[in-house]
Specification:
Layout: H1 2-40, H2 44-50, E1 51-58, E2 64-66, H3 67-73, E3 85-96, E4 99-109, E5 116-129, E6 132-142
Parallel strand pairs: 1-6
Antiparallel strand pairs: 1-2, 3-4, 4-5, 5-6
Length: 148
Amino acid sequence: MQLSNLIIVMALILSFTCSAKSSIENELVNRVDELFLAQTSFDPVALDNLLADEFVEISPKGEFDTKPMVLEYYQAKNKTNFIPVIEKSLVNVNYVDNMAHITLKETFKTENSDTALFSMHAIFVLKRVAKEWKFTYAQYTPIVAKER
């Protein structure tokens, strides 16, 4: 009887641990979605709330951009009519304590189209500030189509 109780307790602990992990992973992936929305909407106020003060981005062109540079780029005056649909795939989330690392593939498409315009690999580093995850680093690497 004691062994069966121990097995039940262990199963409950494992279940709780897995659900807590999934909850944090979901929270982190949701932050990425918020970042994508702020970028495609050219919303510097939302970006300011998402990015840590020490935020650094390596752009798809290899440029080193600080938070003020990113906020300047995403001003409404720079917004274009093109609003891409961004699909995430190959999402990998790792975290320890108050730090997280996310890698994923972004595929950019136009609305109502299944044809990919281009894709990038993205790396994000986040830290928990108070009870909120903030981006401290982003790097975007374009995926070049292989010639056949």
